[in-house]
Amino acid sequence: MSRVQSSTDRVDTATFATHGASARAVIRELLVHGALPRAELARRLQLSPAALTRVTRELLDTGTIRESGAASAGTGGRPGTPLEVSVERHQMVGIKVTGDGVYGVRTDALGHVQGSAQRQLASTDVDDVTHTIVDLVNEVAADAPVEAIGVGLAGTMSRFDDRVRRNLYLGWDDVPLGAALEHACGLPTVISNDVRALTAGVHWSGPARGHDDVAVVTTGVGVGIGLVIEGRTVAGTRGKAGMIGHQRISDSGPICSEGHRGCADSYLTTGAITRAVAVAHGEPSMTLERVCALADDGDAAARRVLADAGRALGAVVAGLVNALDLPNVILAGDGLPAVMRARPEIEESLALHLDRYASPPDVQLLVSDFDEWARGAAVVACQWLLLEPPRWVGTRRPGVRARGRDRDRRRRNDAVPIEA
Ligand SMILES: [Zn+2]
């Protein structure tokens, strides 16, 4: 059933996902590249001037885009005026789930954080974790309408998945978390691999903004990689791209949890680093912070273990650059504060392992907390709405109690009457 909408209604109900494919392509282009004039948009999207005008008029009418503030002053909206997305009008929630905590942010359409909160997990039970996430969504989405939820966590999810696949830290596989959150929160929800989510945020509004080819390599509880090639996140046809943790680095290194000798994990994970220093010191309760403090004090064992980790990381980065000719590599993850103490070893090993004809990459360090990962999950939610919008957005969702008419959805989210 359809009804004629007034222009006020259109502004009230317009989410990214309610627009057609051409309009969503315009939004995406403006988010990724910043303000652009109509002629440039038409050229990039291969749309006729008339088609582009139709699309931009709809987007201007709904307030989704606007003429760029600085440039439009005094022009009266000439065709050459650049257009930009009203990013603050389109907000997402991003959630990062670790083995023992949940981190949530509300962001604008580009992933800029507007509010954040976190919870510790009392258990890894699916219902308990789901309730904790719902509670967190309630808190961060309390002050603004939200269009979608993105959840990032370890696992072999496709780029825009509806479930958690093979998450070792929670012990989950094939858990339909997306549907559970959609039902509880009344918002479309997408699940993605957390390193890919981090990479999406880094690409859209972090240090990789403006770069079409970049790898993000993370160290922490595991070793991960997120790839953007020609502007597009690479997930692999089965969601498994980026499994580099058990790549062989040396024939004589430590043994990892899978029984490999000298793989990247055996040098680089937080567990590997703390175990090696714990053994050297006879201190079973070693932490990464303590390893860093020991290294800073000149402790030989801590420095040797971190130097080995740095050399392993340099070899991993070199392998990626050799294979993919990546001009930009960003090192990140909660293990980075330790590993970056071995920056000379990282660089030395990178130079040693790069093919003689490969171009050395620009390597940047991104030290962050888990909000950065949650922020990336919000960017994935935004990408999902623009690239593969869920079918029920903008209409009443079948099978779920709807309060009032469709246009009340935004107000519903305003008030956040979420059923925990
Ligand atoms: Zn291994």
Structure overview:
It is a single chain. The protein is an alpha/beta fold. It folds into 3 domains: 7-72 and 82-88, Winged helix-like DNA-binding domain superfamily/Winged helix DNA-binding domain (Arc Repressor Mutant, subunit A), CATH 1.10.10.10; 90-198 and 371-414, Nucleotidyltransferase, domain 5 (2-Layer Sandwich), CATH 3.30.420; 211-365, ATPase, nucleotide binding domain (Nucleotidyltransferase, domain 5, 2-Layer Sandwich). 41% of the residues lie in helices and 15% in strands. Strands 5-4-3-6-7 form a 5-stranded mixed beta sheet. Helix 3 packs across helix 4 and helix 8 (194-205) crosses helix 15.
Relative helix content: 40-55%
- Beta-strand content: 15-25%
CATH third-tier fold name of the largest domain? Nucleotidyltransferase, domain 5
- Which residues sit in consecutive blocks of at least 5 with pLDDT less than 50? 1-10, 394-420
Q: What is the number of domains? A: 3
Which hetero ligands occur in this complex?
zinc ion
Strand order of the largest sheet: 5-4-3-6-7
Order of helices and strands: HHHHEHEEEEHEHEHEEEHHHHEHHEHH
Tally of strands:
12
Radius of gyration: 23 Å
CATH architecture of the largest domain: 2-Layer Sandwich
- Profile the largest sheet: 5 strands, mixed
Shape: globular
Topology readout:
Elements: H1 7-13, H2 21-33, H3 38-45, H4 49-61, E1 65-67, H5 69-72, E2 83-85, E3 92-97, E4 101-107, E5 113-120, H6 126-140, E6 148-153, H7 177-185, E7 189-193, H8 194-205, E8 214-219, E9 223-229, E10 232-234, H9 264-268, H10 270-281, H11 288-296, H12 300-324, E11 328-332, H13 336-339, H14 343-353, E12 362-365, H15 370-387, H16 409-415
Parallel strand pairs: 3-6, 6-7, 8-11, 11-12
Antiparallel strand pairs: 1-2, 3-4, 4-5, 8-9, 9-10
Helix pairs in contact: 2-15, 3-4, 6-7, 8-15, 10-12, 11-12, 12-14
The protein binds zinc ion (ZN).
